[in-house]
Specification:
This protein has 39 helices and five strands. By secondary structure, it is mostly helical. A five-stranded mixed beta sheet has the order 2-1-3-4-5, with helices on both faces. Helix 10 runs antiparallel to helix 11, helix 30 packs parallel to helix 32 and helix 36 crosses helix 38. The longest helix is centred in the first third of the chain and has 17 residues. The relative contact order is 0.03. Bound molecules: zinc ion (2 copies). The site of one zinc ion has 5 residues, from loops.
Length: about 725
């Protein structure tokens, strides 16, 4: 009845009828009454309409259709203020709602309302909805609207929902910006930000050039965009050109760029900027955290620590950053020490800090410490894939394949990282067949470059050439890393001609890759082929003149090859050339071992331990026993000339893993189990002595080096079958 009267354009009759009835209207009648009031919109109906709205029961406020008709009514009344208020109280805005808004006559207010609506969506991470709405309404954007929609387009990219379509909206919109907005820095900067998120650096650069009065925010957006697009060099170029005084945001961006680049220029710029940092920036937590991150990545642990200590109210992120820095600098013990401090402050361990702790354990790999971290994982994180994946890695690195397998089996939906970690640790533990088996079971669509490298590596370390070949041939897209792993597999078995063929093939259409040459060089060293070794190294010097670290490692391998054929004169030539051209600094060897629940760290020729006199004496004693059992020292593993007070035996005996073993013999007359982790590869002499020690003292010794895990048994053999 009511509905009929309204649609027959007799709204006043509706109201009369309603007033006569004197009943509480239901939501349908209420909707009709609002519509009637809106149609008449005179003093009387305005009064009735407002009263109805005030008296409306609370549960009607959830009904969108009803609220939309009320909204429509208020707009018709010209009561924009209350319409807006009502609009804001509405939880689920839909198409009908904005239709109602559009029928209002106060366009400027509608702009505002729409902008609020867009912003509401974007703030609520519902960018898709904001864009849907934007596409549906035949209505130009206004001012803030551009910014919000640009922002929505940029954010949506991360969600991977139709990225190309979203890019189109953003680009089209950019072309449509009316002329008078071209001086609006805020709008243009948000467009810049969007283009950078699209990875469209070229157009962002064009837009940047177009902006006449660039302010610090514009520069910040541009530099941040470069960093996000992994073009940190360009970010620094722009920073150096900028004549404005940098604010804290610029500091953070520049520090991030420097921390990613890590070259000489980045270190210089980062340090200079830090020296100039105004005092009041030292209150900015985020800035300080990125400063610590940068310093730690520069390897400047001391300055990083100093700054860390000055921060009064540290949060968990601050701890996470410095602990990660310790790991990067191969200081897992320092990383673990901070755990106590975190606990004292009653922070609850989250997945990020736990991943870092697990990573620290993976580095030193001492079993009981690993277990103690595992015991501290809160129950709700036992379903966290990131944590579980890193646990597989940690247990595998620690040589506990059973624990790694247990974790693997507990995961319901293994992802690519889960599989890759498990395949990797099988390889590390010389379980090539298990690695291949899992690789075959893994769904094809999950295979990525890392998977292929891991499985080929596992084959390579277990000497499974045929299996490696057939897997290699199946791979459709062979990256440089994949080919290098296959070359490594061939070189370990001294099949150098085929390895060289792979390089030649690769270089027909790609620029040379240093890893491939290093793989051959390493095989040549093991097979004592000095001519091949020299040839490969000479070629590397021509191809990679700027890869100083690689050349340094290559030169050490070359020198070792000469020593292995007793050509100490050539070895000395190689060494002095290296020092002249590449400098003396080489990565120091570090070994960790655990005794009575405590972890000890030893460097080569370490004198820092309070009992170091006794430790060195013990190492000498062990050496004497070994010689009695027929051990002959292998001078080819020494990379520098002896000083006057040194002998071949004394140098080799002070390798870090030897000191770690000696420490156990100092604590116990005849230890039955020793676990050692070394950051570099063990040398051939240490490998032989470790096996012999295991045999003489009937002791099980596990040594994990940079390459694999050696399980030395009391029968004098090693699980790697001397294939390392
Ligand atoms: Zn050694
Ligand atoms: Zn071994």
């Amino acid at each position: 009845m009511f509905k009929g009267l309204v649609s027959n354009k007799m709204p006043e009759k509706v109201l009369d009828l309603f007033l006569q009835m004197n009943i509480q209207p239901d939501h349908i009648i209420q909707t009709i009454l609002f519509t009637a009031c809106a149609q008449v919109a005179n003093a009387r109906t305005k009064d009735i309409g407002r009263k109805l709205l005030q008296q409306m029961p609370q549960h009607f406020h959830k009904n969108n259709i009803l609220l939309t008709s009320a909204l429509n009514m208020l707009m018709k009344f010209g009561d924009i203020e209350n319409a807006e208020k009502l609009f804001q109280t509405m939880k689920n805005k839909d198409v009908i709602t904005y239709d109602a808004m559009m029928k209002g006559e106060f366009v400027m207010n509608i702009y505002q309302i729409f902008n609020k609506l867009y912003l509401g969506y974007v703030d609520n991470k519902m960018c898709e909805k904001a864009l849907d709405l934007f596409e549906q309404i035949p209505f130009p954007l206004h001012n803030v609207g551009y910014i919000i929609i640009f922002n929505a387009c940029a954010q949506l990219l991360n969600d991977r929902a139709n990225p190309s379509e979203r890019k189109d909206i953003g680009r089209k919109l950019l072309q449509q910006i009316p002329q008078h907005f071209h001086n609006d820095n805020v709008i243009l900067t948000s467009a810049l930000d969007m283009l950078m998120k699209f990875g469209d650096v070229e157009n962002a650069e064009n837009l940047f050039k177009m902006i006449e009065n660039k302010d610090i925010i514009t520069y910040g957006a541009m530099m941040k965009g470069y960093v996000e697009n992994k073009m940190c060099d360009k970010a620094l170029d722009l920073f150096e050109k900028m004549s404005l005084y940098p604010n804290n945001v610029i500091y953070i961006i520049v520090f991030n760029a420097c921390a990613q680049l890590l070259n000489d220029r980045a270190k210089k710029i980062g340090r200079k900027l830090l020296d100039q940092m105004p005092q009041h920036f030292y209150d900015d937590h985020v800035l300080l955290t990125s400063t610590i991150d940068m310093l730690m990545k520069f390897g400047d642990i001391e300055s990083g620590e100093k700054l860390f200590r000055t921060i009064r109210n540290k949060n968990l992120v601050t701890y996470t950053v410095i602990m990660n820095g310790y790991n990067i600098n191969n200081k897992p013990l320092k990383c673990l020490q901070l755990l106590e401090e975190i606990k004292q402050q009653n922070f609850i361990l989250d997945e990020f800090v736990l991943s870092i702790l697990i990573n620290a354990c993976a580095r030193h790999s001492m079993l009981s410490k690993c277990q103690s971290i595992v015991d501290q994982i809160p129950s709700h994180l036992w379903k966290n894939q990131r944590i579980l994946n890193s646990l597989i890695y940690m247990w595998g690195k620690a040589g506990s394949i059973e624990n790694a397998q247990k974790i693997f089996l507990s995961i319901n939906n293994p992802d690519v990282i889960t599989y890759n970690s498990m395949i990797y640790v099988y390889g590390l533990n010389r379980m090539g067949l298990e690695a291949i088996d899992l690789y075959r079971k893994m769904p094809d669509y999950l295979h990525n470059e890392v998977t292929h490298v891991c499985v080929l590596n596992a084959c390579s370390h277990s000497g499974l050439l045929d299996e490696a070949r057939s897997i290699f041939n199946e791979i459709s897209q062979k990256s440089a890393q994949i080919i290098a792993t296959m070359i490594d597999c061939l070189s370990r078995l001294f099949i150098f001609d085929q390895a060289q063929n792979l390089i030649d093939d690769y270089e027909k259409s790609n620029s040379p890759s240093p890893v491939m040459y290093m793989a051959i060089l390493s095989g040549a060293r093991n097979s004592r082929q000095h001519i091949l070794s020299q040839k490969i190294y000479d070629r590397m010097e021509i191809l990679f003149p700027n890869e100083k670290e690689t050349l340094k490692s290559g030169s050490i391998l070359l020198g070792n090859t000469y020593l292995s054929i007793d050509d100490s004169e050539q070895a000395e030539n190689v060494r002095s050339n290296r020092i002249k051209e590449l400098g003396t600094k080489i990565k120091p060897g570090v070994s960790w071992t655990e005794f009575n629940g405590e972890i000890f760290e030893f460097t080569a020729n370490d004198r820092s331990h309070p009992r170091s006199e006794e430790i060195h004496a013990k190492a000498k004693y062990i050496s004497d026993v070994l010689m009695k059992h027929g051990h002959k020292y292998d001078a080819s593993w020494i990379t520098r000339p002896l000083r006057e007070d040194e002998t071949i035996a004394s140098v080799l005996c002070s390798h870090s893993e030897r000191l770690a073993i000696a420490y156990h013999f100092l604590q116990q007359e005849n230890p039955s189990f020793i676990q050692i982790t070394k950051n570099l590869r063990v040398c051939g002499d240490c490998h032989r002595t470790t096996k012999l020690i295991a045999k003489i003292w009937q002791c099980k010794i596990i040594v994990r080096d940079a390459n694999c895990i050696h399980h030395c048994s009391p029968d004098g053999t090693c699980s790697c079958q001397d294939h390392f």
